[in-house]
Amino acid sequence: MHSAAVTTEGDRIRWAELPGGDPARVYVHGLGATSPLYFAETAVHPLLAGRRSLLIDLLGHGHSDRPTSFAYTLEDHADALAAALRAAKVTGAEVVAHSMGGAVAVVLAARHPELVSRLVLVDAPGPADAGAGRSRQPGHRRVGVPRGRLAGGA
């Protein structure tokens, strides 16, 4: 288990890390979840394996600290996640995020664009300007993956 102090009080975000090549892939859980448990099977799937993978627990979740002085806004979560990624020497990551973690990832990409090369949002809000099936931003697109495809289903 890896960790980094991400607040002035020394509160720590913790993550499980799988070795592999760059760019790193960062997994961010949704509300009430923990990334190592939620994303472990996905991160080791043969179609996705081989990348350095960080399964991050946001503050207040899983193995990370639960500071009482932290505001727990999307912006605060994104800035704390940015501090953890910098401590882990991650730039240009592919960020895979579920639900509330997706909202945090969108804010992370907006506030710290050097840390994110791609966003994969699962059951999460997308960029505010995303239209039906496509974004107005160059290089952004929405795709659908049939249920069970990554889990080995038909």
UniProtKB/TrEMBL annotation:
Q: Please tell me whether the keyword Metal-binding is annotated for this protein.
A: no
Query: Which residues fall in a compositionally biased region of kind Low complexity?
Result: 145-154
The record's annotation in SUPFAM superfamilies points to: alpha/beta-Hydrolases
- InterPro entries registered for this protein in UniProt: AB_hydrolase_1 (IPR000073), AB_hydrolase_fold (IPR029058), AB_hydrolase_sf (IPR050266)
Q: Extract the ranges annotated as region (Disordered).
A: 129-154
Q: Which domain of life is it from?
A: Bacteria
TM helices/strands, residue ranges: none
The answer, when asked if Electron transport is one of the entry's keywords, is: no
What keywords are annotated for this sequence in UniProt?
Hydrolase
AB hydrolase-1 domain sequence ranges: 26-127
For this protein, the record's PANTHER family field holds: AB HYDROLASE SUPERFAMILY PROTEIN YCLE, MONOACYLGLYCEROL LIPASE
Protein name, UniProt field: AB hydrolase-1 domain-containing protein
State the organism named in the record.
Streptomyces variabilis
Top-level taxonomy: Bacteria, Bacillati, Actinomycetota, Actinomycetes, Kitasatosporales
